[in-house]
What we know:
Low-confidence stretches: none
Structural class: mainly alpha
Radius of gyration: 21 Å
Helix content: over 70%
Distance between the termini: 54 Å
Oligomer: single chain
Shape: globular
Amino acid sequence: xxxxxxxxxxxxxxxxxxxxxxxxxxxxxxxxxxxxxxxxxxxxxxxxxxxxxxxxxxxxxxxxxxxxxxxxxxxxxxxxxxxxxxxxxxxxxxxxxxxxxxxxxxxxxxxxxxxxxxxxxxxxxxxxxxxxxxxxxxxxxxxxxxxxxxxxxxxxxxxxxxxxxxxxxxxxxxxxxxxxxxxxxxxxxxxxxxxxxxxxxxxxxxxxxxxxxxxxxxxxxxxxxxxxxxxxxxxxxxxxxxxxxxxxxxxxxxxxxxxxxxxxxxxxxxxxxxxxxxxxxxxxxxxxxxxxxxxxxxxxxxxxxxxxxxxxxxxxxxxxxxxxxxxxxxxxxxxxxxxxxxxxxxxxxxxxxxxxxxxxxxxxxxxxxxxxxxxxxxxxxxxxxxxxxxxxxxxxxxxxxxxxxxxxxxxxxxxxxxxxx
Length: 421
């Protein structure tokens, strides 16, 4: 019995079941319960030492800080009416055209993803888009809400700061910004354009529905203006931090905290009003995923995958790029792209792969999650935001859409990666 428990298969089984729990959400329990339960069980059975578990948790410190800062900014903006104001402005600009509103949301989502990250798009933009659809009296709001989830991944490799997974893939070997831009400019452009046209085509029937053009734009209160200022300054802070190769978690957290202090001096809301509405369960979810990845490390998975990738590169670097990018794109949807990115980052570092292979890996990790609702943390955050706004999307409905949208963008983006160097 002891030998059975010590088997790597037991560790893989627990990690797999925990991940399945995150994906399926049995009994409608929150995702973090399943991730943390898997982590606790691994330690309780002696399959992972407390020291290794703690090491896994601490590796996510930068991500925890980043997410806390972003969730704080989002809640401040929501409570101070910034989302309602933006929604009314966007709906008025659409002038009664559902397609124009869809395109406007897509453009804004791209900008937010590029300069604030895909998680910010899921957390910050989704409530604003839900408010816009409501203000426009759209009978079918899902086309606009789908944009928030899909573009959050499709535009997430324009800049290093566009997705925390980018930092995980490159680790301490992050290319300078002036090297990053030419390397990922064409793949990003192809990904964004392909995503727009396929997504718009897939939603064409719902976008024929009329929307209201008579929208009253509310007055933005002082607290809302302060929140908008804080979000804008956060974007600048993230760009500067990226340029100086500074981890993004602490600057984002401090920017969120500074914005909160600024808003609270101009608002009737108190600290508890903000804190009670933040989705804190995201943090133990991420911590649990980090522990699950740490348990896989102890079984030698990364060493075996590294050796396999090296063999593939020796046969054909081009084939290695296509295979690794495609496999990861699908694999992210089975285990979530955060743990997949952690493993992939260590594998490519150990394998010493060419630049275009690493680029294909990153594209697979960033873009592949558009296939399913569990592919990325951003999509899970999007689902959480949807539930708060009274909307729901089934895993099957998202999968049917993702199967149309993701593959063309992935193939074009990987092909574009070969144009650099």
